């Protein structure tokens, strides 16, 4: 056993003299504060916790040789782990933090922040995609062959499926896994920081990483293929750093396997991280040599990937995997207008290009919690505050990595081998993540790759303070801890607000969720509707990209794709999905009116054939919407046939119709055909074929007249309403008035329908209102049916806002007519 040597504590005057000598630059700057020591017996060299080798200029190699010889001498004194805590950044700072105590602090901070919010909020698209895909694997489906996966490699999904198999497929299980992943990440960040700076700033770095979690929201809050890829890459780098300056073969093998796992989760960051790992044995050769180290790491990564490829080859899914994970992302990158880095200029004035991508470039947690207040604030509307705060952050990782690389090169002779090697590895990781920062270059994709930048920033500050006078070091340490405290307090504030925002509980088969009041009401209604109308075990397709609903209701997707992207891996994907619907005889489809149409385009543009099929076979059976500005879901049911033959479809006779504008003061102006075509036309909206008619602001009215020969037993059947794609708007709102008149040859006018709706402000009006108007009194006559539309204000004067859904004359047999009556 090593025997601890206790040295007498120097007198205060002697301690002051030593401090003064250190401040004046005498001796090795890394030895200004004397390390604690232990006495090591001759055979106990391997038990030393950490060795600090002074390297100063040209004497570095000589010093290392002397230390190596002295290490075998009886009674040799070696610094204990954490001796570098007394390095330049912390001289004069009382109570340098021991690594074990620092780890406990990081562990406690990470758990305290997460456990308060781990089961709050839901990611209806990204999180739902991962969770539903994992459950489809549990149902025996093979990814890529049976389930279309747009872009990601399979590692995350199969790992989560394995966890679900052990603990059950619930949201809570996935969130606990996310807590474990982030907590381990925080400990890894702490270890990486300790390798390039003293323990106290390393602790500060790890606590800043804990605070950063809220700003990276929703990443690290849920299981994601991006975060799991970064997690495995970070584990590999941490393992290698622990073996520096010359990692052993075993470490290289495990690191290679972890790098392979990172690649199996995420192509871009996994590939660049694996490349960085492969460079390590070449730049920092192990005792076995560069080539052997490189081959061991590479073959370990291949050993992880080959079984996965063999599995998909045996399942006949390898070509589908290639199409979905390689061909599709490359085509998407070439054709889809992803947002790139925001232009740094203009910086001091508002940038319209930056503001139009506000939901991409702004922090997700700010948008989630405060968007309505933020968008109405003076700071947002009248200043460039957000441009000045956010734009530089997108360029900060590049500047910091460059500065850290230059500083490491300039100080290479003054760094001991272990720290120099650790800095090289950390710079390789930072460069790998910067290479993986592909489009979309928005906030969430920036933040998930940001943590190496955080470590490098604190490292640069620590180095700068290490060369400063003692008073400046103390002031810098105080300011640094103030920054850490403010960051933690801000994140705690955000966590508290997130917890308050998601104070409503919904218990569903896929787990108990804590969400906002609006989400709780909508999801609860959807759950009750599905339970009452969809047989147990029947599939439940959800379009265009809200698979969390399927997961929470524990339903099979029913279609091979449940996320409809702007770019498809197959030209006939729509037809495949239609075949899935017909094969399963799907009676209910959940459709989300709330979409990311600004970034992902509307559903009808991304899947036109599928949309047309849904319009033809399905209709809106129920709308789930509780608030003017909130989540809107609809249930589509099979369309009921008409009770009799259709003898006249108004959309087919649009050329015979006349459009007139009534100004409201008795003046009616009939428009020419060319002018009228700009205001009236046939269209297909969710989920009705319509005659779209532009309203006129009150007191005026637009009038569309059709001449019609009314047969016996005729009914005018239609629905009317606002285009569902226009329901959700917080500004430019207008109510609409629909009316239908019958004008006879004798000059008599009878009003058959008169209704006013306001779907943009009244959620109960968010539906297609059906009407069945009996025209028996006009049988045998030639009449004009006048469709009138007016708007509350000028915001309602647009051609894609109001419409008549499939107006038609249906001959209803007397028996059916009597039954209806």
Give a short synopsis of this structure.
With 821 residues, the protein is α+β, with helices and mostly antiparallel strands.
Total number of distinct structural domains: 4
Strand segment tally: 21
First-residue to last-residue Cα separation = 99 Å
Structural class: alpha+beta
Roughly how much helix do the residues carry, as a percent range? Answer: 40-55%
- Percentage beta strand: 15-25%
Query: Roughly what is the average pLDDT, rounded to an integer?
Result: 88
Put simply, the count of helices is: 29
Shape: elongated
How would you sum up this structure, described in words?
The radius of gyration is 34 Å and the shape is elongated. Residues 1-95 have low confidence and may be disordered. The protein is 48% helix and 15% strand. The longest helix is centred in the middle third of the chain and has 32 residues, at 470-501. Strands 10, 11, 14, 15, 17, 18 and 20 form a seven-stranded mixed β-sheet that branches. Strands 9, 12, 13, 16, 19 and 21 form a six-stranded antiparallel β-sheet that branches. Strands 5-6-8-7 form a four-stranded mixed β-sheet. Helix 17 crosses helix 20 (451-466). It is of the alpha+beta class and 821 residues long. The protein folds into four domains: 12-81, no CATH class; 99-116 and 149-497, no CATH class; 519-638; 646-820, Jelly Rolls, CATH 2.60.120.
Please give the structural blueprint.
Layout: H1 12-23, E1 37-40, H2 60-70, E2 76-79, H3 99-115, H4 126-138, H5 155-167, H6 171-196, H7 199-215, H8 225-241, H9 249-265, H10 267-283, H11 290-314, H12 318-335, H13 352-356, H14 358-361, H15 364-375, H16 378-382, H17 385-410, H18 417-435, H19 443-447, H20 451-466, H21 470-501, E3 504-508, E4 511-515, H22 517-533, E5 542-543, H23 548-552, H24 573-583, E6 588-592, H25 597-600, H26 603-606, H27 608-617, E7 618-624, E8 633-638, E9 646-649, E10 658-662, E11 668-670, H28 673-677, E12 680-685, E13 688-693, E14 696-697, E15 701-709, E16 714-722, E17 736-743, E18 749-757, E19 769-774, E20 782-791, E21 802-811, H29 814-820
Parallel strand pairs: 5-6, 14-20
Antiparallel strand pairs: 1-2, 3-4, 6-8, 7-8, 9-21, 10-11, 10-15, 12-13, 13-21, 15-20, 16-19, 16-21, 17-18, 17-20
